[in-house]
Write a structure and sequence with these properties.
Elements (H helix, E strand, L loop, with lengths): L1 E5 L11 H15 L3 E7 L10 E2 L4 E5 L2 E11 L9 E6 L1 H4 L16 H19 L5 E5 H15 L12 E6 L7 E3 L3 H4 L3 H6 L3 E2 L2 E3 H8 L2 E4 L2 H6 L10 H6 L4 E3 L26 H15 L10 E8 L5 H5 L6 H7 L3 E8 L1 H13 L3 E5 L3 H10 L2 E4 L9 H7 L3 E5 L2 H6 L13 E3 L4 H17 L1 H12 L5 H16 L1
Parallel strand pairs: 1-2, 1-7, 2-6, 7-8, 8-12, 12-13, 14-15, 14-17, 15-16, 17-18, 18-19
Antiparallel strand pairs: 3-5, 4-5, 5-6, 9-11, 10-11
The structure holds adenosine-5'-diphosphate.
Length: 493
Protein backbone atom coordinates (compact mmCIF):
# COMPACT_ATOMS: atom_id res chain seq x y z
CA UNK A 1 0.00 0.00 0.00
CA UNK A 2 1.00 3.59 -0.56
CA UNK A 3 0.64 5.43 2.72
CA UNK A 4 1.05 9.13 3.39
CA UNK A 5 1.44 10.12 7.03
CA UNK A 6 0.25 13.69 7.46
CA UNK A 7 1.54 14.88 10.77
CA UNK A 8 2.44 18.06 12.61
CA UNK A 9 5.29 16.24 14.37
CA UNK A 10 7.80 13.54 13.51
CA UNK A 11 10.94 12.48 15.27
CA UNK A 12 13.71 13.71 14.95
CA UNK A 13 12.47 16.92 13.31
CA UNK A 14 9.77 18.25 15.61
CA UNK A 15 8.47 16.78 18.82
CA UNK A 16 6.30 17.86 21.71
CA UNK A 17 5.21 14.39 22.82
CA UNK A 18 4.60 10.74 22.00
CA UNK A 19 2.95 11.59 18.66
CA UNK A 20 6.32 12.42 17.09
CA UNK A 21 7.83 9.09 18.15
CA UNK A 22 4.81 7.19 16.94
CA UNK A 23 4.68 8.69 13.45
CA UNK A 24 8.30 7.89 12.68
CA UNK A 25 8.41 4.49 14.32
CA UNK A 26 5.16 3.33 12.75
CA UNK A 27 6.36 4.53 9.35
CA UNK A 28 9.57 2.55 9.68
CA UNK A 29 7.73 -0.57 10.81
CA UNK A 30 5.21 -0.32 7.96
CA UNK A 31 8.02 0.16 5.44
CA UNK A 32 9.64 -3.01 6.78
CA UNK A 33 6.40 -4.83 6.02
CA UNK A 34 6.88 -3.74 2.42
CA UNK A 35 4.63 -0.69 2.20
CA UNK A 36 5.53 2.55 0.44
CA UNK A 37 5.38 5.03 3.31
CA UNK A 38 6.01 8.75 3.18
CA UNK A 39 5.60 11.55 5.70
CA UNK A 40 4.58 15.16 5.20
CA UNK A 41 5.00 17.79 7.91
CA UNK A 42 5.56 21.54 8.17
CA UNK A 43 9.08 22.89 7.90
CA UNK A 44 9.27 24.61 11.23
CA UNK A 45 11.80 27.31 11.79
CA UNK A 46 14.19 25.01 13.69
CA UNK A 47 14.46 22.51 10.81
CA UNK A 48 17.49 23.70 8.91
CA UNK A 49 16.94 23.98 5.17
CA UNK A 50 20.62 23.28 4.65
CA UNK A 51 20.14 19.56 5.28
CA UNK A 52 17.13 19.25 2.96
CA UNK A 53 16.56 18.96 -0.79
CA UNK A 54 14.36 21.50 -2.47
CA UNK A 55 11.71 20.21 -4.85
CA UNK A 56 11.82 22.28 -7.97
CA UNK A 57 9.32 25.11 -8.28
CA UNK A 58 6.84 26.66 -5.87
CA UNK A 59 3.53 24.96 -5.10
CA UNK A 60 0.19 26.75 -5.06
CA UNK A 61 -2.36 25.78 -2.42
CA UNK A 62 -5.92 27.04 -2.97
CA UNK A 63 -7.30 28.41 0.27
CA UNK A 64 -10.40 30.49 0.89
CA UNK A 65 -10.28 33.55 -1.31
CA UNK A 66 -6.62 33.25 -2.18
CA UNK A 67 -3.87 30.96 -3.28
CA UNK A 68 -0.99 30.40 -0.87
CA UNK A 69 2.43 29.59 -2.22
CA UNK A 70 4.89 27.32 -0.51
CA UNK A 71 8.10 25.51 -1.20
CA UNK A 72 8.50 21.81 -0.52
CA UNK A 73 11.70 20.29 0.79
CA UNK A 74 12.47 16.65 1.25
CA UNK A 75 14.78 14.41 3.21
CA UNK A 76 15.08 10.76 4.09
CA UNK A 77 13.92 9.78 7.55
CA UNK A 78 17.00 8.87 9.60
CA UNK A 79 17.20 5.19 10.57
CA UNK A 80 14.74 4.18 7.89
CA UNK A 81 17.43 1.80 6.69
CA UNK A 82 16.96 -0.31 3.60
CA UNK A 83 13.56 1.10 2.85
CA UNK A 84 14.18 4.85 2.92
CA UNK A 85 11.14 6.88 3.93
CA UNK A 86 10.83 10.25 2.20
CA UNK A 87 9.83 13.12 4.47
CA UNK A 88 8.35 16.18 2.78
CA UNK A 89 8.45 19.55 4.48
CA UNK A 90 5.95 22.25 3.65
CA UNK A 91 7.81 25.54 3.78
CA UNK A 92 5.71 28.64 4.33
CA UNK A 93 7.41 31.57 5.95
CA UNK A 94 4.36 33.31 7.34
CA UNK A 95 2.92 30.20 8.98
CA UNK A 96 5.94 28.18 10.01
CA UNK A 97 8.89 30.56 9.94
CA UNK A 98 8.70 31.26 13.64
CA UNK A 99 9.75 29.65 16.86
CA UNK A 100 7.35 27.03 18.22
CA UNK A 101 5.24 24.22 16.82
CA UNK A 102 1.82 25.16 18.20
CA UNK A 103 2.93 28.11 20.26
CA UNK A 104 5.54 29.48 22.59
CA UNK A 105 5.64 29.76 26.38
CA UNK A 106 4.26 33.28 26.08
CA UNK A 107 1.68 32.39 23.42
CA UNK A 108 0.89 28.70 23.99
CA UNK A 109 -1.65 28.43 21.16
CA UNK A 110 -0.87 30.66 18.18
CA UNK A 111 -3.90 32.71 17.15
CA UNK A 112 -3.56 31.62 13.55
CA UNK A 113 -3.27 27.88 14.31
CA UNK A 114 -6.55 27.02 12.57
CA UNK A 115 -5.26 28.72 9.45
CA UNK A 116 -1.74 27.32 9.74
CA UNK A 117 -2.99 23.76 9.95
CA UNK A 118 -5.84 24.10 7.47
CA UNK A 119 -3.22 25.25 5.01
CA UNK A 120 -0.91 22.41 5.96
CA UNK A 121 -3.67 19.82 5.45
CA UNK A 122 -4.59 21.20 2.08
CA UNK A 123 -0.96 21.33 1.00
CA UNK A 124 -0.67 17.55 1.54
CA UNK A 125 -2.89 17.04 -1.53
CA UNK A 126 -0.87 19.51 -3.56
CA UNK A 127 2.30 17.68 -2.58
CA UNK A 128 0.90 14.44 -4.05
CA UNK A 129 0.09 16.25 -7.28
CA UNK A 130 3.54 17.77 -7.34
CA UNK A 131 5.32 14.43 -7.00
CA UNK A 132 2.66 12.56 -8.98
CA UNK A 133 2.21 10.00 -6.26
CA UNK A 134 -1.27 9.28 -4.92
CA UNK A 135 -1.61 7.30 -1.73
CA UNK A 136 -4.05 4.50 -0.97
CA UNK A 137 -4.16 5.75 2.59
CA UNK A 138 -3.97 9.21 4.06
CA UNK A 139 -3.15 8.74 7.71
CA UNK A 140 -3.63 11.85 9.85
CA UNK A 141 -2.89 12.41 13.50
CA UNK A 142 -4.78 14.50 16.05
CA UNK A 143 -6.40 17.88 15.44
CA UNK A 144 -3.56 19.55 13.49
CA UNK A 145 -3.96 17.17 10.55
CA UNK A 146 -7.61 16.21 11.10
CA UNK A 147 -8.78 18.47 8.26
CA UNK A 148 -7.08 16.16 5.77
CA UNK A 149 -10.09 13.88 6.25
CA UNK A 150 -12.49 16.70 5.55
CA UNK A 151 -10.69 17.83 2.39
CA UNK A 152 -10.61 14.25 1.16
CA UNK A 153 -14.25 13.51 1.81
CA UNK A 154 -15.81 16.80 0.82
CA UNK A 155 -13.41 18.20 -1.75
CA UNK A 156 -11.09 15.69 -3.39
CA UNK A 157 -13.15 12.48 -3.50
CA UNK A 158 -16.45 13.98 -4.66
CA UNK A 159 -14.67 14.76 -7.92
CA UNK A 160 -15.44 11.12 -8.75
CA UNK A 161 -13.30 9.10 -11.12
CA UNK A 162 -11.75 12.27 -12.48
CA UNK A 163 -10.11 13.08 -9.16
CA UNK A 164 -6.70 11.73 -8.32
CA UNK A 165 -7.83 10.81 -4.82
CA UNK A 166 -10.86 8.85 -5.93
CA UNK A 167 -9.47 5.63 -4.46
CA UNK A 168 -7.78 7.09 -1.42
CA UNK A 169 -9.10 6.18 2.03
CA UNK A 170 -8.45 8.02 5.26
CA UNK A 171 -7.52 7.07 8.78
CA UNK A 172 -7.43 9.44 11.73
CA UNK A 173 -5.54 8.48 14.86
CA UNK A 174 -6.47 10.18 18.09
CA UNK A 175 -3.41 10.43 20.29
CA UNK A 176 -5.10 12.55 22.92
CA UNK A 177 -8.77 13.46 22.91
CA UNK A 178 -8.08 16.32 25.32
CA UNK A 179 -6.65 18.46 22.51
CA UNK A 180 -9.22 19.18 19.82
CA UNK A 181 -8.29 22.42 18.12
CA UNK A 182 -11.34 24.53 18.97
CA UNK A 183 -11.31 28.01 17.44
CA UNK A 184 -13.61 30.82 16.45
CA UNK A 185 -15.75 30.32 13.34
CA UNK A 186 -14.25 33.44 11.82
CA UNK A 187 -11.30 31.24 10.85
CA UNK A 188 -13.46 28.96 8.76
CA UNK A 189 -13.65 31.00 5.58
CA UNK A 190 -9.90 30.57 5.10
CA UNK A 191 -10.33 26.78 4.84
CA UNK A 192 -12.03 27.38 1.50
CA UNK A 193 -14.94 25.02 2.19
CA UNK A 194 -18.61 25.98 2.08
CA UNK A 195 -20.84 26.44 5.10
CA UNK A 196 -22.72 23.28 4.14
CA UNK A 197 -19.47 21.42 4.82
CA UNK A 198 -19.12 23.24 8.13
CA UNK A 199 -22.27 21.51 9.33
CA UNK A 200 -22.09 18.27 7.34
CA UNK A 201 -18.49 17.56 8.32
CA UNK A 202 -19.24 18.28 11.97
CA UNK A 203 -17.05 21.33 12.55
CA UNK A 204 -19.83 22.95 14.54
CA UNK A 205 -19.21 22.87 18.28
CA UNK A 206 -21.26 25.22 20.44
CA UNK A 207 -20.86 27.98 17.89
CA UNK A 208 -17.15 27.33 17.58
CA UNK A 209 -15.15 25.37 15.03
CA UNK A 210 -13.76 22.04 16.25
CA UNK A 211 -11.11 20.60 13.93
CA UNK A 212 -10.80 17.20 15.58
CA UNK A 213 -14.55 16.71 15.65
CA UNK A 214 -14.76 17.34 11.90
CA UNK A 215 -11.99 14.80 11.40
CA UNK A 216 -13.82 12.23 13.51
CA UNK A 217 -16.94 12.61 11.40
CA UNK A 218 -15.11 12.61 8.09
CA UNK A 219 -12.38 9.95 8.31
CA UNK A 220 -13.12 6.52 6.89
CA UNK A 221 -11.66 4.80 9.94
CA UNK A 222 -10.71 6.09 13.35
CA UNK A 223 -8.50 4.69 15.98
CA UNK A 224 -6.77 5.60 19.14
CA UNK A 225 -3.55 4.36 20.64
CA UNK A 226 -4.72 1.67 23.03
CA UNK A 227 -7.76 -0.61 23.24
CA UNK A 228 -8.67 0.48 26.77
CA UNK A 229 -8.54 4.19 25.88
CA UNK A 230 -10.81 3.50 22.89
CA UNK A 231 -13.41 2.14 25.29
CA UNK A 232 -12.94 4.92 27.84
CA UNK A 233 -13.34 7.70 25.29
CA UNK A 234 -16.81 6.45 24.44
CA UNK A 235 -17.91 7.36 27.96
CA UNK A 236 -18.88 10.76 29.26
CA UNK A 237 -16.14 10.64 31.89
CA UNK A 238 -13.31 10.44 29.34
CA UNK A 239 -14.94 11.61 26.13
CA UNK A 240 -14.17 15.35 26.43
CA UNK A 241 -17.70 15.97 25.11
CA UNK A 242 -16.95 13.98 21.93
CA UNK A 243 -18.01 10.63 23.42
CA UNK A 244 -21.28 10.88 21.51
CA UNK A 245 -19.42 11.24 18.21
CA UNK A 246 -17.22 8.26 19.07
CA UNK A 247 -20.20 6.13 20.03
CA UNK A 248 -21.86 7.15 16.77
CA UNK A 249 -18.75 6.02 14.89
CA UNK A 250 -18.00 3.02 17.08
CA UNK A 251 -18.26 0.55 14.16
CA UNK A 252 -15.24 2.28 12.61
CA UNK A 253 -13.40 3.08 15.82
CA UNK A 254 -10.80 0.84 17.45
CA UNK A 255 -7.71 0.91 19.65
CA UNK A 256 -4.24 -0.15 18.51
CA UNK A 257 -1.52 -0.11 21.10
CA UNK A 258 1.55 1.93 20.26
CA UNK A 259 4.86 0.16 20.21
CA UNK A 260 8.18 1.62 21.23
CA UNK A 261 11.17 2.32 19.05
CA UNK A 262 13.39 -0.54 20.14
CA UNK A 263 16.34 0.87 18.20
CA UNK A 264 16.30 3.91 20.48
CA UNK A 265 14.78 2.56 23.67
CA UNK A 266 16.75 -0.56 24.33
CA UNK A 267 19.21 -0.97 27.21
CA UNK A 268 21.22 -3.43 25.11
CA UNK A 269 22.24 -0.69 22.68
CA UNK A 270 21.71 2.56 24.54
CA UNK A 271 24.59 5.02 24.18
CA UNK A 272 23.25 7.33 26.89
CA UNK A 273 23.79 4.88 29.75
CA UNK A 274 27.13 3.97 31.35
CA UNK A 275 26.86 0.25 30.63
CA UNK A 276 24.61 -1.47 28.15
CA UNK A 277 22.67 -4.40 29.60
CA UNK A 278 20.23 -7.18 28.82
CA UNK A 279 18.21 -9.57 30.97
CA UNK A 280 21.34 -11.59 31.71
CA UNK A 281 23.37 -8.73 33.24
CA UNK A 282 20.57 -6.38 34.24
CA UNK A 283 21.55 -6.18 37.91
CA UNK A 284 25.04 -4.95 37.07
CA UNK A 285 23.97 -2.60 34.28
CA UNK A 286 21.22 -1.05 36.35
CA UNK A 287 23.49 -0.64 39.37
CA UNK A 288 25.94 1.38 37.29
CA UNK A 289 23.15 3.45 35.76
CA UNK A 290 21.75 4.10 39.24
CA UNK A 291 25.11 5.46 40.40
CA UNK A 292 25.39 7.68 37.34
CA UNK A 293 21.84 8.91 37.88
CA UNK A 294 22.49 9.66 41.55
CA UNK A 295 25.67 11.51 40.55
CA UNK A 296 23.99 13.58 37.89
CA UNK A 297 21.20 14.68 40.22
CA UNK A 298 23.58 15.29 43.13
CA UNK A 299 22.11 12.53 45.29
CA UNK A 300 24.31 10.33 47.50
CA UNK A 301 25.24 7.03 45.87
CA UNK A 302 23.22 4.36 47.64
CA UNK A 303 22.29 1.09 46.01
CA UNK A 304 19.96 0.04 48.82
CA UNK A 305 17.57 2.97 48.61
CA UNK A 306 14.82 2.49 46.05
CA UNK A 307 15.09 5.20 43.42
CA UNK A 308 11.85 6.47 41.93
CA UNK A 309 12.04 8.21 38.56
CA UNK A 310 9.56 10.33 36.69
CA UNK A 311 9.72 11.95 33.23
CA UNK A 312 6.73 13.97 32.28
CA UNK A 313 5.08 17.01 30.89
CA UNK A 314 4.08 18.96 33.99
CA UNK A 315 0.41 19.26 33.18
CA UNK A 316 -2.86 18.22 34.81
CA UNK A 317 -3.25 15.13 32.62
CA UNK A 318 -0.18 13.59 34.20
CA UNK A 319 -1.54 13.71 37.76
CA UNK A 320 0.92 16.39 38.83
CA UNK A 321 -1.79 18.25 40.75
CA UNK A 322 -2.32 15.29 43.06
CA UNK A 323 1.40 14.72 43.36
CA UNK A 324 2.79 18.24 43.60
CA UNK A 325 -0.21 20.48 44.36
CA UNK A 326 0.97 22.90 47.09
CA UNK A 327 -0.48 21.85 50.43
CA UNK A 328 -2.24 18.69 49.29
CA UNK A 329 0.05 16.86 46.86
CA UNK A 330 1.54 13.61 48.13
CA UNK A 331 5.16 14.05 46.92
CA UNK A 332 6.14 15.88 50.09
CA UNK A 333 4.87 13.08 52.39
CA UNK A 334 6.26 10.36 50.13
CA UNK A 335 9.74 11.85 50.34
CA UNK A 336 9.48 12.64 54.05
CA UNK A 337 8.00 9.33 55.23
CA UNK A 338 9.68 6.79 52.97
CA UNK A 339 13.29 5.71 52.68
CA UNK A 340 13.63 6.50 48.98
CA UNK A 341 15.21 8.82 46.47
CA UNK A 342 13.05 10.56 43.89
CA UNK A 343 14.19 12.25 40.64
CA UNK A 344 12.01 14.15 38.21
CA UNK A 345 12.66 15.37 34.68
CA UNK A 346 9.98 17.54 33.17
CA UNK A 347 8.71 20.87 32.04
CA UNK A 348 5.33 22.45 31.69
CA UNK A 349 2.96 24.57 33.72
CA UNK A 350 4.85 27.21 35.63
CA UNK A 351 3.09 26.69 38.99
CA UNK A 352 4.29 23.09 38.85
CA UNK A 353 7.82 23.89 37.75
CA UNK A 354 8.05 26.31 40.68
CA UNK A 355 6.59 23.81 43.11
CA UNK A 356 8.98 20.98 42.21
CA UNK A 357 11.93 23.36 42.40
CA UNK A 358 10.75 24.42 45.82
CA UNK A 359 10.38 20.78 46.92
CA UNK A 360 13.88 20.03 45.68
CA UNK A 361 15.25 22.88 47.77
CA UNK A 362 13.57 21.58 50.94
CA UNK A 363 13.84 17.80 50.61
CA UNK A 364 17.23 16.08 50.68
CA UNK A 365 15.99 13.05 48.74
CA UNK A 366 14.07 14.80 45.94
CA UNK A 367 15.81 16.28 42.90
CA UNK A 368 14.47 17.74 39.70
CA UNK A 369 15.65 18.91 36.33
CA UNK A 370 13.32 21.33 34.60
CA UNK A 371 13.71 21.13 30.86
CA UNK A 372 13.72 18.66 28.01
CA UNK A 373 16.68 16.27 28.00
CA UNK A 374 16.78 13.20 25.80
CA UNK A 375 20.00 11.84 27.37
CA UNK A 376 18.76 12.25 30.92
CA UNK A 377 15.46 10.57 30.09
CA UNK A 378 17.35 7.42 29.07
CA UNK A 379 19.49 7.51 32.19
CA UNK A 380 16.40 7.85 34.39
CA UNK A 381 14.76 4.80 32.81
CA UNK A 382 17.93 2.76 33.29
CA UNK A 383 18.91 4.02 36.74
CA UNK A 384 15.49 3.98 38.44
CA UNK A 385 14.02 1.09 40.38
CA UNK A 386 10.48 2.40 40.00
CA UNK A 387 8.88 4.74 37.51
CA UNK A 388 5.94 6.86 38.63
CA UNK A 389 3.12 7.75 36.23
CA UNK A 390 -0.06 8.74 38.09
CA UNK A 391 -1.91 9.92 34.99
CA UNK A 392 -5.45 11.22 35.11
CA UNK A 393 -5.87 9.67 31.68
CA UNK A 394 -3.35 8.14 29.33
CA UNK A 395 -4.20 7.34 25.70
CA UNK A 396 -1.24 4.96 25.49
CA UNK A 397 1.77 6.30 27.32
CA UNK A 398 5.28 5.41 26.31
CA UNK A 399 7.24 5.83 29.48
CA UNK A 400 5.67 2.89 31.28
CA UNK A 401 6.77 0.69 28.35
CA UNK A 402 10.26 2.20 28.28
CA UNK A 403 10.57 1.64 32.00
CA UNK A 404 9.59 -2.03 31.75
CA UNK A 405 12.08 -2.50 28.91
CA UNK A 406 14.75 -0.94 31.15
CA UNK A 407 13.78 -2.91 34.24
CA UNK A 408 12.20 -0.08 36.23
CA UNK A 409 8.85 -1.11 37.67
CA UNK A 410 6.02 1.25 36.73
CA UNK A 411 3.74 2.64 39.44
CA UNK A 412 0.72 3.75 37.44
CA UNK A 413 -2.93 4.62 37.59
CA UNK A 414 -5.22 1.99 36.14
CA UNK A 415 -6.32 3.90 33.05
CA UNK A 416 -6.08 3.86 29.24
CA UNK A 417 -2.91 2.39 27.79
CA UNK A 418 -1.46 1.91 31.26
CA UNK A 419 -4.14 -0.73 31.86
CA UNK A 420 -3.19 -2.47 28.61
CA UNK A 421 0.56 -2.55 29.25
CA UNK A 422 1.13 -3.00 32.99
CA UNK A 423 0.11 -6.03 35.05
CA UNK A 424 -0.54 -5.30 38.69
CA UNK A 425 1.69 -6.92 41.33
CA UNK A 426 0.10 -9.88 43.08
CA UNK A 427 1.93 -10.22 46.34
CA UNK A 428 0.60 -13.76 46.90
CA UNK A 429 1.97 -15.21 43.68
CA UNK A 430 4.61 -12.60 42.78
CA UNK A 431 3.02 -12.12 39.37
CA UNK A 432 2.91 -8.72 37.67
CA UNK A 433 5.14 -6.08 36.16
CA UNK A 434 4.14 -2.99 38.15
CA UNK A 435 1.93 -1.38 40.77
CA UNK A 436 -1.49 0.07 40.00
CA UNK A 437 -4.20 2.13 41.64
CA UNK A 438 -7.68 3.12 40.54
CA UNK A 439 -8.74 6.46 41.97
CA UNK A 440 -6.54 9.46 41.28
CA UNK A 441 -6.03 11.24 44.59
CA UNK A 442 -2.97 12.09 46.70
CA UNK A 443 -3.70 9.32 49.20
CA UNK A 444 -3.90 6.64 46.50
CA UNK A 445 -0.55 7.72 45.04
CA UNK A 446 0.98 7.75 48.51
CA UNK A 447 -0.40 4.30 49.33
CA UNK A 448 0.71 2.71 46.08
CA UNK A 449 4.21 4.17 46.19
CA UNK A 450 4.26 2.92 49.78
CA UNK A 451 3.24 -0.54 48.60
CA UNK A 452 6.04 -0.60 46.04
CA UNK A 453 8.56 0.58 48.63
CA UNK A 454 7.30 -2.05 51.06
CA UNK A 455 7.83 -4.70 48.37
CA UNK A 456 11.35 -3.37 47.73
CA UNK A 457 12.32 -3.83 51.37
CA UNK A 458 10.33 -7.03 52.06
CA UNK A 459 9.90 -8.90 48.76
CA UNK A 460 13.15 -8.33 46.91
CA UNK A 461 13.13 -11.66 45.04
CA UNK A 462 9.66 -10.86 43.72
CA UNK A 463 10.82 -7.37 42.70
CA UNK A 464 13.79 -8.82 40.82
CA UNK A 465 11.55 -11.37 39.08
CA UNK A 466 9.11 -8.63 38.05
CA UNK A 467 11.97 -6.58 36.68
CA UNK A 468 13.09 -9.38 34.37
CA UNK A 469 9.51 -10.16 33.38
CA UNK A 470 9.04 -6.54 32.29
CA UNK A 471 12.30 -6.54 30.34
CA UNK A 472 11.27 -9.63 28.40
CA UNK A 473 7.99 -8.14 27.17
CA UNK A 474 7.62 -7.40 23.47
CA UNK A 475 6.71 -3.75 22.94
CA UNK A 476 8.08 -3.58 19.41
CA UNK A 477 6.31 -1.75 16.60
CA UNK A 478 6.18 -4.82 14.42
CA UNK A 479 3.03 -6.18 16.03
CA UNK A 480 1.26 -2.80 16.02
CA UNK A 481 2.26 -2.09 12.41
CA UNK A 482 0.57 -5.31 11.31
CA UNK A 483 -2.61 -4.14 13.03
CA UNK A 484 -2.41 -0.76 11.24
CA UNK A 485 -1.93 -2.56 7.93
CA UNK A 486 -5.09 -4.57 8.67
CA UNK A 487 -6.93 -1.36 9.50
CA UNK A 488 -5.83 0.21 6.20
CA UNK A 489 -6.91 -2.88 4.29
CA UNK A 490 -10.29 -2.80 5.96
CA UNK A 491 -10.94 0.73 4.73
CA UNK A 492 -9.75 -0.05 1.22
CA UNK A 493 -12.22 -2.92 1.07
P1 LIG B 1 2.76 12.39 26.21
O1 LIG B 1 2.88 12.18 24.74
O2 LIG B 1 1.35 12.49 26.72
O3 LIG B 1 3.63 13.49 26.74
P2 LIG B 1 4.02 9.78 26.42
O4 LIG B 1 4.45 8.98 27.62
O5 LIG B 1 3.18 9.09 25.43
O6 LIG B 1 3.32 11.09 26.97
O7 LIG B 1 5.30 10.30 25.66
C1 LIG B 1 6.15 11.24 26.23
C2 LIG B 1 7.46 11.23 25.48
O8 LIG B 1 8.15 12.46 25.72
C3 LIG B 1 8.38 10.16 25.97
O9 LIG B 1 9.26 9.79 24.93
C4 LIG B 1 9.13 10.88 27.11
O10 LIG B 1 10.33 10.27 27.45
C5 LIG B 1 9.32 12.23 26.50
N1 LIG B 1 9.47 13.32 27.46
C6 LIG B 1 8.51 13.98 28.13
N2 LIG B 1 9.04 14.97 28.88
C7 LIG B 1 10.38 14.94 28.68
C8 LIG B 1 11.49 15.71 29.16
N3 LIG B 1 11.32 16.72 30.00
N4 LIG B 1 12.73 15.40 28.72
C9 LIG B 1 12.91 14.36 27.86
N5 LIG B 1 11.91 13.61 27.37
C10 LIG B 1 10.67 13.88 27.77
Amino acid sequence: MKILMVSSEAQPYAKTGGLADMVSALSIALAKLGHDVRIVMPRYYNIDRAGLDLLEGPVGVPMGGREEWCAIYSAVLPDSGKRPIPVYFIDHEQFFGREGIYGTPWEPDFLDNPRRFAFFCRSAFQLCRKIDWFPDILHSHDWPSAMVNVYLKFWERPMGKEGEFFKTASVLTVHNLGYQGIYGKDNYAYAGLGWDVFYNAGFEDWDMMNLLKAGLYSADKLNTVSPHYAEETKTQAHGFHLDGVLRYRSADYSGILNGIDTAVWNPAGDGYIPQKYTVSNAAKGKARAKEALQDSFGLPRDKDLPLIGMITRLTGQKGVGQLFGPGHGSAWSICQDMKIQFVLLGSGESWCENEVKSLASRLPNFRCHIGYREDLSHLIEAGSDFFLMPSLYEPCGLNQMYSQAYGALPIVRNTGGLTDTVENFDQETGEGTGFMFDELNPQAIYNTVGWAVWAWYNRRPQIEAMRLRGMKKDFSWERSAKKYAELYESCLR
